Amino acid sequence: MATIGAPLLQAKEGSPRGPLERREERLAWLMLLPVILALLALGVYPVLSTLWFSFQQGGSFGLGTTSAGLANYLRLLHDEQFWSALRFSLLYSLVTVCGQMLCGTALALFANRRFRGRWLARAAILFPWAIPTATNSVIWAYMFNDQYGLINSLLEHLGLLNPAHPIVWLGSAQLATLLIYVLAIWKANSLVALLVLAGLQGIPEEVYEAARVDGASRWQLLWRVTLPLLRPVLLVTLILRTIESLQAFDLISAFTNGGPGNATQNLGLYIYLQIQQFGDFGYGSTIAVVLTAITLLFIVLYMRTLLRTGTR
Amino acid sequence: MALAPTTTAPATESSRPTARSRGPLLKPLTRQTLLYLALAVIIVVQFLPLIWALLTSLMTPQETTSIPATLWPVHPTLSSYIEALQGDIGRYYLNSIIASLVSTLVTMVLATLAAYAFARLRFRWKRLALLFVVSLSLFPPFSQVIPLYMMLQGVHLIGTLLALIIPYSVFGLPMAILILMAFLQEVPFEYEEAAALDGMSRLGAFVRIVLPMIIPGLFTTAVIVFVGDWNEYLFALNYTTTATYTLPVGIVILSQTEFTTNFGVLSAAMVMSVVPLVALILLLERRIVSGLTAGGLKG
Questions:
Q1: pLDDT digits (tens, 9 = 90+) for B135-178
Q2: Which of these, A91, A81, A103, lies nearest to A242 by C-alpha position?
Q3: Which among A49, A147, B89, B299 has the fewest CB atoms less than 10 Å away?
Q4: Which residue segments constitute the domains of chain A, with CATH numbers given?
Q5: Contact residues, B window 107-146, toward A, CB-based 8 Å cutoff
């Protein structure tokens, strides 16, 4: 269970010949049928339908739309708000995924050491994963509230801040963006740490012993042994985190709701604005198609990486 | 190999002084102290939001709105919890429980069947079918949210809990299947072979022999699926009305619409929404970690 996607690689194919094998195959498809049908109906059909909607315009909440040709896509080109949302999404992915990889790997290396109370470290690492993203963002927004928040109040108690001039954390575009980065890195450390931890446990102790015999220092062990051996795990984790971060919605929506102004609006929030506020399912779908296309790039990359490491 | 112990013993012996001279000259005791200091920092950083919510939830309304903020509840009270449960939050809580529990149950039944087929049975197109399941789980929910809304609207389910239960049940499947496959692959084949020799059918062996052996795995998977459903936000935000708000949606909307936000009640609601999950984590930390790693997919 140590490697990511292990089930995918261990799946054995078989070409059934005799009646017994044919019965086995029939049973397999019978057991898979509900899942495949459900995924086709609620997974595949909606994706195709979104693609179709991106060529529709007008109407209200998807009803009474008419064919638009490429109008929605042309509209994208001149939509300043779309480009700013796209820019925010890409920058957000770049910064937060790098941060998550660094912090998550550090946490995993820490939790992999043997010491009393290690389970506490692991539980602490796991915790941000379990806390609902949206609810967590509300707590953070409250912590950074300029009047009643914990952070300003701590600074004031320490004499670092004049209560008459509180820092309005979420009122400044730069500070709000920075805080979103911190929050996103904090929230998804867990998943990186868990995957890396599993990778670390898959490295046999003998490798380290051999390196130590050769006189490698701790630092050299980390850079020359541990990290190179972790490369496949790190790569897969990196791709998965990128896919997830491109889809970010609840974290930002509940924290700043895109504000101040549109400073922290990403593609997800912009799609939501189009469909919920304006009821413009056509244009909302068009942006969703763009988001899906970008994601698809990484999905293909993920599959290729997974299958390539498997054949080695 | 028999020589290994004698050769490694002097090696570690000799490596110790070099490690000490190369290292930052820390005595073992200092190193120990640093280790636990780091642990303390990690725990505080990870749990800070929850601790803050917990403290606020115990404060009186006056304390939550004092400037600068009160850092410690001087007159601890449970009134925020009572107010939360008696108000709308109580209903949101119930909605979340029903939607998550029912969806988890449906997901588990369907995923167990599929995972067994993938892990144990031989059939053509297996890898393709598995790739289909995995890749679908990586698609952004935004690529599905609009047409799904139309479908649910078409059968008049928007505003009922079924509007959440149906998508949750389906979208939890890929992850559940991957995790269950990993658990199934750890069960030795011999048990089923023995069962076959005794004249038991594949399905019979699956139900009576394999399933009882992976009960801990089933439970772990169910917990992970449940956490995903419990925390879901996008579909819940789009497919619910005030009567069917789930806890995350209710909390966010309360925090964004009420200008005289009652931080005490809000914090009590957050604590209540997190506590069941924290309890599960502390109880099942090791299992959840291995399960999540096997699934390796979604956050």
A1: 888 888 999 999 999 999 999 999 999 999 999 999 999 989 98
A2: A91
A3: A147
A4: 72-130+188-311 (1.10.3720.10)
A5: 110-111, 113-114, 116-119, 121-124, 126-127, 129-136, 138-146
